[in-house]
Amino acid sequence: MLILAARLFLSVLAFGECAALAADSSPTKPLAWPVPDWQTSPPDKVQMSEAGLEAVRKWHEQSGTRAALVIRHGRIVGEWYFAGARANEPLLAFSVTKSVSSTAVGMAIAKGKLSLTTPLGKFLPELAPAEKKTIAVGQLLSMTSGVYNNHKLDRVGDPFRYAMLEAPLDFHPGEKWDYNNTGLALLSPCFERATGQRLDEFVAARIFKPIGIRPVDWTWDEAGGLPLPYSGLHITARGLGRFGLLVLRRGRWKDRQIVPADWLARATRPSQDLEKNYGYLWWNNAQGKWRGTPSDAFAAIGKFENDLLIVPSLDLIVVRLVGDETGHEHKVKIDRLFRLAVEACEDR
To answer: N or C end of the chain, less CB within 10 A?
Structure first.
C-alpha cells in the first residue's frame, strides 16, 4: 500500500512539473525548441494580441532599442531591429552578464566544486585585507560582500588585482546589500581556481554550445587575463533568447538537463532579506518591482536597460538589447515594456 501511494505521489509530482514547464505542452502539441533554428508564429497561434504586439514594437522603436524579441511557447512571435542593428550582430549586454555568470556558478556547485558557503579564502588565500577571505560565494552573488564599491572600476587597470588586493571592506560580509561590481570581480578568479576553467570557457562549453549559441553569436570582454563576471558579454538577440528559453524551462534543453532546476529556482527568488528584489545575480518581481507583471517574473538587467525578462506563468520571454551605442540617449522605464508584453498575452 505504501509503495502504491509513493508511486502515485511521484506520478502527480511529475505531472505538475511537466505542466509548469510550459503552458503549451500536450501529447498533441510538443514543446517547441529552436533546433536547429527558431520557429516563428503569428500572434493568434500563441494566444497573443496583434495590437498588443504592435504596442510593444512601438515602445522599442521610440526607446532606443536596437534588437528585440518576444518569445512565447518557444516560438518567436515578435522580432525587430532598429538603428542599423542586424540579427547576427552581438551587442554588449552589460550586467545581463551577471545572470549568465550565476548560471555557471550553479553548475559548478552541482559538481561539488564550491558552495554558497565556501569562503573565498579557500581559493584566494592572497586576499587583502584578511577579512575578505571570510566572504562566502553566496555573498558575492547576493551583493552582500561588503567590498568597497568603486564606481570607477573600469579605470583602475586590472580590476581583479584591485578587487583582490587593494579594495577595502566598507562593511562586514553579509551586513549590507550593495549592488557592487568590485566585489563581484572576485568571482572570476575564484571560479577559475575552483573549477580549473575560465568562466567564459565554462559557459561556452557547458551552456552555449549545447543550446546552439554559436561562437559567432557572442564575445566576452576580459581584463588581466580573466573574463569580467559582471559585464562584458556581447550576444545576439536570438542567442540571448536561447539562454532565456533554457532558464524558462528550468535548465532543460530537449531531453537533457543542462542546468540544475533547483539552482535556477533558488537564484531567481530573494536571496537575502536586505533587498528582496534580488536573488543570486538575478532580479525578481516577488515584491512587485515591475507593476502589471506577474509575481513569478524575473529578469537579467543591464545598463541602458539591456534586459532579458522571463515570465514562467505566461511561458513568455522578452529580449531587449541596445548595446552601448544609443542607450544613453533614452531614459527608459523598463516596467512599461514588461507590462505591454504581459498585456499582449490574451490568456493571462
So the answer is: N
DSSP 133-184: GG-BHHHHHTT---B---TTGGGSS-HHHIIIII--BSS-TTS-----HHHH
CA distances from 13 to 8, 16, 130, 176 (A): 9, 5, 47, 38
**Average pLDDT of the chain?**
92
Q: What is the total residue count of the chain?
A: 348
Take residue 211 and report the three cell numbers written for it. 543550446
Domain, as residue range, for 243: 50-343
Taking the model in full, what pTM does it have? 0.91
Decide if pLDDT at 298 tops 50: yes
Residue 324 pLDDT: 86
**Which residue in this structure is represented by grid cell 517547441?**
32
Q: Is residue 22 part of a domain?
A: no
Q: Give the count of domains, the chain.
A: 1
Place of cell 553569436: 217
Domain presence at residue 40: no
